Amino acid sequence: MHQQIYKSSEGSTAFLNCTFQLTADNIEWKRAKKNPSSITKIFIDNIKYFSTLVIANTEKAADEDYYQCAANNNAVNGDVVELEVCNNETNVKRVALLANDITHSSQEGYSGLRHKHASADQGCEISFVVKIYMDTTQNSVLTPVLNGMKTAFQMCTGCGTRIGNTQAKQECILVCMDITAAEGPLEPSSIHLAEQFKNYLSHGGIVQTSDESRTVLDIDINSFKIKPKNADHNGSPFVSISYGEFRVPVGESAIIKTNVIAEPAAIAIEWFRIEKDMKFKIEIDNEQYFGSSDISPTLIIRGASIGDQGHYLCQAANKNGVGSSNITFLSIQSDTEHHSGDTATEEALTPQSCDLPGHHKDVHKGYFRQRKYDTLPSTAFHHSLKMGCSIGGLLNPTSCTLGPFVKFDNKIGFLTCAHALFDIGSTFQDIDYQYDGIDAIQIIQPACDSPIFNRPPCGHVRRAIFKPQLITSIDVAVIEITDPSRIPVSGQFTNTRHSSYINAGFEELPEFNSGLVERDVQGLDIGHPLYMFGSSSDITRGVLHTYGVSLASGATAMNNQCVFRSTYPTKTPFAMDDSGSGVFTIYPGTDELVCIGMAIGITSYADVVVTPIGAILEALGPQYSIASFP
């Protein structure tokens, strides 16, 4: 080992080096659960842990520990070393993994290269065995199983719309699911989604039937298979890079995630830089370049510089031949593109869709308290509506999130995003909608893409505004709750994974009963802790990264928005269904949740775009206020 104590800032990538004097086989890593005398093996999953040992997006609570490297089936052991993770949220570093469109000038001269690869994404099929002890010849048994699989896939990946044909072969319950191909570089490949779902199941992810029994399914993870569609059948490896482009801030670690499917197993994996139609091999030196192993083929570039920008290709070989990946583009972003108040014209605000002067808080009767309460995942039917629920239009396949509750004209409703309920088009046309009492836009919970969507509407759109040209751009819809049986009596949240609120720092699942709002977001320090409650992402802990920023999408910019940067979980914190999520903070020295805004989209750096709540309420008018509960 190179040193006894390694240090990493929370959210950054940690590199633990290990060098053997002699040739070593079967190198593996272990960790000690904060006790050097109790060592357990680390599973290199090519998602969080990569060979030699690279830990992506470190977290103080999860990764600060003792580590040891071993080789030759434990015949040679390295020193036990300590990893310290600094909990410095004001200076968090991350690895950007979100793709962006490749229609920029640096692509010129390489357009033909993208069609030369052997592993174009044409979709894939995953299959696995479910151990079930029921009469599998009945559709009443199979349908809830398949619907439960779709729900789990959506919860895990946030890409439920990518599921195609799903079937269960009776008696053995062999589940087969088609994943459609990525439609562009902004979307993860089908193989990436398949591996993500496999990793979710491997780490104890729960899949439940969609019927009232909510039976937890027992899945044989060893039976999980991934089969690329229309792949070359000569037996050579299939190599898939997760995105068409990776965007990484200068000086941070670039992780070009890659998966290799090979039978027999690959015996050699190599990476190449493409320049002027020529390939230049990258030497994996475990100093600047990491990865390229059979269990972790991903390429990791430590401290990426402008000189690392370019096109990359991965090749894998087995005894049947050589398989080549799609070509990806690594874009290195300079520091000048991240300053508060600047217009980030290259950041594509994906519509998943003025700060006010003075420091003013709206305080309503009621209070916040942490107490245990029963809740269900966002895609379940909630008799009493909760923030974080999956919602959508009765005639609209798009789903979004039930945001903060609001009161108006002696009625109660909730906020969400207008773009998820109206066709704003590629030109982002303005919307200023007021319900006229005639043609109501009905809203259902859960959304119609949920396996249990055949429920009556819970409300309708009362008001909607989509106006990017305002001083602070607004994208909001107010849903009036029209089903009296579903009106909430407290400000509770949905919850899919119990660990999410614990990892976010809550002892119990919180409530938001006070109706407190922070109108002056600029009064908060950069790095101030924030929390988002989304239908797909569940509870996400993060920090205020910047404010007053304008983010471009085509010819339209969303002005004076805030940027929320996730610190937990470490994956991309915002999925398509999270538009409308309430974003909150907690005042120091109190346990009061305070609403600061609503999430409307995601940047190409995987940060969440948040519209300040003060600007939303001002646009709606004085008759609208955040609801409080006794």
Can you count the beta strands? 42
CATH architecture of the largest domain: Beta Barrel
How many helices in DSSP terms? 5
Q: Judging from the principal axes of the Cα atoms, what is the shape?
A: globular
Label the structural class.
Answer: mainly beta
Tell me about the largest β-sheet. 9 strands, antiparallel
Strand content: 35-45%
Q: Between the first and last Cα atoms, what is the distance in angstroms?
A: 58 Å
Assigned CATH class of the largest domain: Mainly Beta
Condensed summary:
This protein is mainly beta and 630 residues long. The protein is built from 5 helices and 42 strands. Helix content is 8%, strand content 35%.
Name its key features.
single chain; 4 domains; Immunoglobulin-like; six-stranded mixed beta sheet; mainly beta
